[in-house]
Amino acid sequence: MLNKGIFSKHKTTFLVILAVLAIKIALFIWSAYSFDFITHPWNNWINIWDHWDGGVYKTIAQSSYNFVNIKLDYWAFLSHFPPLYSLTMAVVSRLLDISIVNSGILVSLVSIIVASVLLYKLMYLEFKSDRIAWLAVIFLNLYPISYFTISIYSESLFLLMTIGGFYCLKKEYYLLSGFTAAGAILTRFVGIVFIPVYALYFLYSYKKSGFSLKTLYPFLLSLAGLITYLVINK
């Protein structure tokens, strides 16, 4: 009865998770079926998701930004990539005793699933429409380049932090909103857009209800995220 009650209460969340998993599993199978393993025999159905900037994230995960056995220009190139995705990869790899490649794919997969759940909730809060919320989730995961969300790329974690930031702001969880915005900046530098957004939100809240320190938290924490990245970059 307890399990049935939990499922009934969170039915939509479970359905979103199952829907996203089904889409990603189908994409895994389709990719393995379509890939030319004869021409590229050194690949397998896992490492076909490990290309291009995936090597940068793996390098940071394994060696941080230390200049060890890599060319100077490549070392400088690493500084363009904030650390949170690589750090998460490293932690998951160590905790679960799996390879960095498997860890990167797992982090991306879990991140896009949680991001999809939060997107559904955010859209439902905004439009009060189950249909619109579901369409947002489906379109996010069926978008032609959504395959990046299960590759060794930071897109999934960035989406999780970004959607989470706006969801928490909508729910007035100001500390969480600030921390997730800082996480977005520490995942992809474009996350700095949170800083002017939160500044405007604070001004809006000030004009509407007067000064409240808690409405300033998101701005201050997102700014702290930027400063943290700049210190690491320096």
Describe this structure in words.
The protein is mostly helical. It is 70% helix and 0% strand. α2 packs across α6 (100-127). The longest helix has 28 residues, at 100-127. It is flat and about 65 Å long. It starts with a helix and ends with a helix.
Topology:
Layout: H1 2-9, H2 11-34, H3 54-63, H4 72-78, H5 84-96, H6 100-127, H7 130-142, H8 155-170, H9 174-185, H10 194-209, H11 217-233
Uncertain ranges: none
Biggest pleated sheet: none
Order of helices and strands: HHHHHHHHHHH
Name the average pLDDT: 90
What class do helices, strands and sheet pairing give? Answer: mainly alpha
Proportion in helices: over 70%
Number of strands: 0
**What fraction strand?**
under 5%
The general outline is flat
The oligomeric state of the chains shown is single chain
Question: Ends: how far apart?
Answer: 56 Å
Give the count of helical stretches: 11
Radius of gyration: 20 Å
Structure characteristics:
flat; mainly alpha; 11 helices; 234 residues
Please summarize what this structure is.
The chain is built from eleven helices and no strands.
